[in-house]
């Protein structure tokens, strides 16, 4: 059964349409990541699921039960806010114990201690339990806020960028922890981020949102390999996908000013007839240097550590090409390049939807 369902949800704040016809299912036990740029409507979506905000139109279901108008505390979701607030006068331990001591979830102190110890171990905050929040770094506070949601053992976690204040290393560790936590609990995670790497590594599925409109829902692989439109293609992946103007003509595909004529039947497997002008996308790792019949000029080499990005100039076009870190290229060098035929993606230049 789908655990959380949003159906045709609309939300407006004054002149701003924050969500437009949002329909989305989070499956039972799934880690679903809602990904999008700032202002996309991600927080609004979670607030509507949690009951902190009511939709103007449309429905929210949890476990098949319509939730419109149901108070937040009766929705059995734990919410980790983007701007988490800890009680400043309470120690970390008491902050963690707080929900369990409330009337709603009253729990016996021995059990509270057991749960807090477990959660503190997972989150690596055991040494902080007796401190007050103002003696914690931002990342430590964030982990305490996470812990406060975890001690309740809710079935559904709603998380709004809970790792944003952590440094890169801790964030990576926490990703692993969150993922295994979710597996062990069998809980449903509805997780918001604007970081596509986080989305790809955490999500069983990723839902991409832009300007209140859901763009695509799919596995990380689907979203990466077959983006539904130009927005998703650009937003997922770093560095960005290359885009070129393509002109299919007489069985050939001409690409921008690349002086290439590719055999159309090798690059286009779709059934429909292509329009006379298309947008062609190709990821940086799908351009191979040192092969092929035409050459470009190395304009810049960026060392990313694990690999390098070569900016290759062809005519007026600057291509991004991912190469292994051992590869040596010098600026000004002329290098042959090859586009991996099967990896070209075609988009309608007007609607920006992927063709195929
Ligand atoms: N209470 C509010 N009053 C007025 N406008 C709001 C309110 N809450 C959200 N908005 C607007 O709705 C839109 C969506 O906001 P939301 O907070 O959902 O975005 P977000 O995707 O979470 O962005 P971010 O990544 O910056 O957190 C934005 O344009 C925002 O300014
Ligand atoms: Mg937000």
From TrEMBL:
<dbReference type="Pfam" id="PF08402">
    <property type="entry name" value="TOBE_2"/>
</dbReference>
<dbReference type="InterPro" id="IPR017871">
    <property type="entry name" value="ABC_transporter-like_CS"/>
</dbReference>
<dbReference type="Pfam" id="PF00005">
    <property type="entry name" value="ABC_tran"/>
</dbReference>
<dbReference type="InterPro" id="IPR003593">
    <property type="entry name" value="AAA+_ATPase"/>
</dbReference>
<dbReference type="GO" id="GO:0140359">
    <property type="term" value="F:ABC-type transporter activity"/>
</dbReference>
<protein>
    <submittedName>
        <fullName>ABC transporter ATP-binding protein</fullName>
    </submittedName>
</protein>
<dbReference type="InterPro" id="IPR003439">
    <property type="entry name" value="ABC_transporter-like_ATP-bd"/>
</dbReference>
<feature type="domain" description="ABC transporter">
    <location>
        <begin position="4"/>
        <end position="236"/>
    </location>
</feature>
<keyword id="KW-0547">Nucleotide-binding</keyword>
<dbReference type="InterPro" id="IPR013611">
    <property type="entry name" value="Transp-assoc_OB_typ2"/>
</dbReference>
<dbReference type="InterPro" id="IPR015855">
    <property type="entry name" value="ABC_transpr_MalK-like"/>
</dbReference>
<dbReference type="InterPro" id="IPR012340">
    <property type="entry name" value="NA-bd_OB-fold"/>
</dbReference>
<dbReference type="GO" id="GO:0008643">
    <property type="term" value="P:carbohydrate transport"/>
</dbReference>
<dbReference type="GO" id="GO:0055052">
    <property type="term" value="C:ATP-binding cassette (ABC) transporter complex, substrate-binding subunit-containing"/>
</dbReference>
<dbReference type="GO" id="GO:0016887">
    <property type="term" value="F:ATP hydrolysis activity"/>
</dbReference>
<dbReference type="InterPro" id="IPR008995">
    <property type="entry name" value="Mo/tungstate-bd_C_term_dom"/>
</dbReference>
<dbReference type="GO" id="GO:0005524">
    <property type="term" value="F:ATP binding"/>
</dbReference>
<dbReference type="InterPro" id="IPR047641">
    <property type="entry name" value="ABC_transpr_MalK/UgpC-like"/>
</dbReference>
<dbReference type="InterPro" id="IPR027417">
    <property type="entry name" value="P-loop_NTPase"/>
</dbReference>
<keyword id="KW-0813">Transport</keyword>
<keyword id="KW-0067">ATP-binding</keyword>
